[in-house]
Amino acid sequence: MRCCLCQRPLTQSWSLKLLLSAEPLVPPSLCSECRGGFTVIDQENICAGCGRPLVDRLCSDCQYWQQRDGISLHNRAVYHYNDNLKDLMHQYKAVGDYRLHVAFQSDLMGLCRRVGRLVPLTTEPEHFARRGFDPVLGLFGHLPLWPCLAKGNTDQPQARKKRGARLRTPQSFTCTATLSELQRVKHICLVDDLYTTGTTLHHAAAALRDAGYRGQITSRTLIR
Ligand SMILES: [Zn+2]
Ligand SMILES: [Zn+2]
């Protein structure tokens, strides 16, 4: 096995505790040097709404959503968006290096443990056609997913927009599940690669509500 980022050989060592646990084993895909370049969010010191690091109250984004919609999503993320992670995501999403989809499998397994039905925020058809893969399904595809949200084509990717334009983006999700399917689920956890302003996740949640879903909605993202 080699590190999926730098291609150095990986030395794999399972702890006895892990081998004896009931948790599924996910082999590491990043070497310790590459992993050390990413900043794990200290979960003791985050915004209670979106999981933004180094905030000890509801952050300005969550205050905005609370004023606008009366809710702020309960989001939790693993990593802070530092330069190394920006480089990796650029290589994965913009360059289209699909080999990197395994980089965070064990982190995401831990993040999404016991959080309800996992609904991925899938990519829009034009992006899928250009890239040839769905980045969110790539990252979270080793977990049991329920892809019940479809995304229509938007004028411009969120990543290229300024903050104000992101917040004003119109709804582009529709729910493909039937009402009776939705009524059987008590907790939906939306999963996405990146939480920036929360617009995409709030639109996904609104599409579920519009389709008649009345259960709990939370979210998990790789990056905040
Ligand atoms: Zn490496
Ligand atoms: Zn927040």
Structure description:
- 33% of the residues lie in helices and 14% in strands.
- It contains 10 helices and 6 strands; from the N terminus they run H-H-H-E-H-H-E-H-H-E-H-E-H-E-H-E.
- The chain is of the alpha/beta class.
- It has one domain (27-223).
- The protein binds zinc ion (2 copies).
- One zinc ion binds at residues 3, 5-6, 8, 30-31, 33-34.
H/E series, N to C? HHHEHHEHHEHEHEHE
The percentage of residues in β strands lies in: 5-15%
Count of helical stretches: 10
Number of domains: 1
Present as ligands are:
zinc ion
What structural class is derived from the secondary structure elements?
alpha/beta
- Please compute the radius of gyration using only Cα atoms: 18 Å
In this structure, how is the largest beta sheet organized?
4 strands, parallel
Topology, number of strands: 6
Quote the distance from N terminus to C terminus. Answer: 29 Å
Mean pLDDT figure: 89
| Side-by-side strand order of the widest sheet | 1-6-5-2
The helix fraction, in percent, is: 25-40%
- Overall outline: globular
